[in-house]
Request: fold
Amino acid sequence: MKEKIRKEMLRKLSDLPSQERIRMEQALTTEVCTSDEWKASKTIGVTWSNFPEIDTHKIIQKGLEEGKRMVIPYSGKERVMTFHEYLPDTAMARSKFGIMEPVDKSNPVPPGEIDLLLVPGLAFSDSGYRVGFGGGYYDRYLAAYKGQTLSLLFPFQLFREPNWEVEAFDVPVQKLLTASF
Reply:
């Protein structure tokens, strides 16, 4: 069921008209960067997005402009994810999964130092459960993470109830910010 949902959501994300996408992404960027969670955070974890995901580049830039410590994930061996500080001159490379990650992985940021984690996903239930991209990296990370979690989504990504199997290791996202059409 999750694989079917992944394919459907990736198709919907890819097919979204660019003007609608841009408008909703701008609204989500404003909403997250003015949220109480953002304001209270010094260190923020966020993925370097790839199309058709919701664009995170302006969020990263805004954080840097505000003097926040922005940290980007690295998908390591045995599905262990670590976060690393991102600065404008940080060398990035495309991973085997096709996502941009920091090249230098020598200084991981401990989970306890990350105040807010923007959690990616393809489908979300009202209760915060999500269908991710299928690697299980975030599920493993969230199991031990104690900070605030927040996800950004388009309206079609939100389901009242999860119509997928919620597994014992799934950790719900604490807050969902949903763009409006």
Summary: The chain is about 30% helix and 25% strand. The chain has a mean pLDDT of 92. The domain at 2-14+36-122+134-178 is CATH 3.40.50.10420 (Rossmann fold).
